[in-house]
């Protein structure tokens, strides 16, 4: 994985931990979404699952458009997991084509709207065309700061930790890092998200109450919001509903 594919985003370390004051203006800076339910949305309409994924891209467009107006600075979307390769070939092919198309057709528009595209995951294992389009979109939008759209592609939380541990082990082996020097901050700096703050809010659509290998380290203190709405039906209004719920939560980060 190259630095180019990640981009470098300076985290706002001076920012407060978003603990107080509560109220409707208490907004998450980083929202991460598990976009689930595309298949069920399609099957319910008697359509192939792949049509559900196409509709899912439309929902993604709507949410990316709405996010900056709602005060969101970073939006991480789980587009393809390391486990999704186990799906039937035609479905994997559709998802890969949608990724290519999204980067190809949407990058200019996102660029005009001040969106910076970033990608996390084992990007180097994707087909070359997808790697190229992602790199192109990342490079084109590098200077933007209205919203970071962070696409999790061929992403798995366990794979991310394995990659971090491998890189830490290599540094220890070469004598550049002492084992005693490894703490949570050092581990954090070896994650794909080293340059991003942790998500404040994780949204999951389609009702399942699990993380499905998403942002395992980073979700330590994330608030979780689950809706039964299938991803293709998810709109700005649902996002606003999630933000209203978030504003009522009390975040203590282990303190009292
Ligand atoms: C889960 O729904 C969704 C996915 C595995 C893929 C998510 C992808 C998109 C929303 C569109 C692709 C976007 C880009 C940028 C490529 P599911 O298929 O597991 O639904 P089900 O649980 O109802 O079967």
From TrEMBL:
<feature type="compositionally biased region" description="Basic and acidic residues">
    <location>
        <begin position="1"/>
        <end position="15"/>
    </location>
</feature>
<feature type="active site" description="Proton acceptor">
    <location>
        <position position="84"/>
    </location>
</feature>
<feature type="region of interest" description="Disordered">
    <location>
        <begin position="1"/>
        <end position="24"/>
    </location>
</feature>
<feature type="binding site">
    <location>
        <position position="223"/>
    </location>
    <ligand>
        <name>Mg(2+)</name>
    </ligand>
</feature>
<dbReference type="GO" id="GO:0008834">
    <property type="term" value="F:ditrans,polycis-undecaprenyl-diphosphate synthase [(2E,6E)-farnesyl-diphosphate specific] activity"/>
</dbReference>
<feature type="binding site">
    <location>
        <begin position="81"/>
        <end position="83"/>
    </location>
    <ligand>
        <name>substrate</name>
    </ligand>
</feature>
<feature type="binding site">
    <location>
        <position position="204"/>
    </location>
    <ligand>
        <name>substrate</name>
    </ligand>
</feature>
<dbReference type="GO" id="GO:0030145">
    <property type="term" value="F:manganese ion binding"/>
</dbReference>
<feature type="binding site">
    <location>
        <position position="53"/>
    </location>
    <ligand>
        <name>substrate</name>
    </ligand>
</feature>
<feature type="binding site">
    <location>
        <begin position="37"/>
        <end position="40"/>
    </location>
    <ligand>
        <name>substrate</name>
    </ligand>
</feature>
<dbReference type="InterPro" id="IPR018520">
    <property type="entry name" value="UPP_synth-like_CS"/>
</dbReference>
<dbReference type="InterPro" id="IPR001441">
    <property type="entry name" value="UPP_synth-like"/>
</dbReference>
<dbReference type="InterPro" id="IPR036424">
    <property type="entry name" value="UPP_synth-like_sf"/>
</dbReference>
<comment type="similarity">
    <text>Belongs to the UPP synthase family.</text>
</comment>
<dbReference type="GO" id="GO:0000287">
    <property type="term" value="F:magnesium ion binding"/>
</dbReference>
<feature type="binding site">
    <location>
        <begin position="210"/>
        <end position="212"/>
    </location>
    <ligand>
        <name>substrate</name>
    </ligand>
</feature>
<feature type="binding site">
    <location>
        <position position="49"/>
    </location>
    <ligand>
        <name>substrate</name>
    </ligand>
</feature>
<feature type="binding site">
    <location>
        <position position="36"/>
    </location>
    <ligand>
        <name>Mg(2+)</name>
    </ligand>
</feature>
<dbReference type="GO" id="GO:0016094">
    <property type="term" value="P:polyprenol biosynthetic process"/>
</dbReference>
<comment type="subunit">
    <text>Homodimer.</text>
</comment>
<feature type="binding site">
    <location>
        <position position="41"/>
    </location>
    <ligand>
        <name>substrate</name>
    </ligand>
</feature>
<dbReference type="Pfam" id="PF01255">
    <property type="entry name" value="Prenyltransf"/>
</dbReference>
<keyword id="KW-0460">Magnesium</keyword>
<protein>
    <recommendedName>
        <fullName>Isoprenyl transferase</fullName>
        <ecNumber>2.5.1.-</ecNumber>
    </recommendedName>
</protein>
<comment type="function">
    <text>Catalyzes the condensation of isopentenyl diphosphate (IPP) with allylic pyrophosphates generating different type of terpenoids.</text>
</comment>
<dbReference type="GO" id="GO:0005829">
    <property type="term" value="C:cytosol"/>
</dbReference>
<feature type="binding site">
    <location>
        <position position="85"/>
    </location>
    <ligand>
        <name>substrate</name>
    </ligand>
</feature>
<keyword id="KW-0479">Metal-binding</keyword>
<keyword id="KW-0808">Transferase</keyword>
<feature type="binding site">
    <location>
        <position position="87"/>
    </location>
    <ligand>
        <name>substrate</name>
    </ligand>
</feature>
<feature type="active site">
    <location>
        <position position="36"/>
    </location>
</feature>
């Amino acid at each position: 994985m190259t630095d180019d594919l990640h981009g470098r985003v300076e985290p706002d370390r001076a920012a407060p931990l978003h603990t107080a004051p509560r109220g409707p203006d208490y907004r998450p800076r980083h929202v991460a979404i598990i976009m689930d339910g595309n298949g069920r949305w399609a099957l319910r309409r008697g359509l192939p699952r792949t049509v559900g994924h196409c509709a899912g891209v439309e929902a993604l467009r709507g949410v990316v458009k709405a996010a900056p107006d709602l005060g969101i600075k970073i939006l991480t979307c789980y587009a393809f997991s390391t486990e999704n390769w186990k799906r039937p070939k035609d479905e994997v092919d559709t998802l890969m084509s949608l990724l290519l198309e999204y980067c190809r057709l949407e990058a200019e528009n996102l660029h005009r709207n001040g969106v910076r595209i970033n990608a996390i995951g084992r990007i180097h294992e994707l087909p070359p065309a997808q790697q190229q389009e992602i790199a192109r979109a990342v490079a084109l939008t590098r200077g933007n700061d209205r919203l970071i759209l962070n696409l999790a592609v061929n992403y798995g939380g366990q794979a991310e930790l394995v990659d971090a541990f491998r890189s830490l082990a290599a540094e220890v082996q070469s004598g550049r890092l002492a084992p005693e020097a490894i703490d949570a901050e050092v581990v954090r700096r070896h994650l794909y998200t080293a340059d991003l703050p942790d998500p404040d809010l994780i949204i999951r659509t389609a009702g399942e109450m699990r993380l499905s290998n998403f942002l395992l380290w980073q979700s330590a203190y994330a608030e979780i919001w689950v809706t039964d709405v299938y991803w293709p039906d998810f709109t700005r209004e649902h996002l606003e509903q999630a933000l209203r719920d978030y504003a009522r939560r009390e975040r203590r980060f282990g303190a009292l």
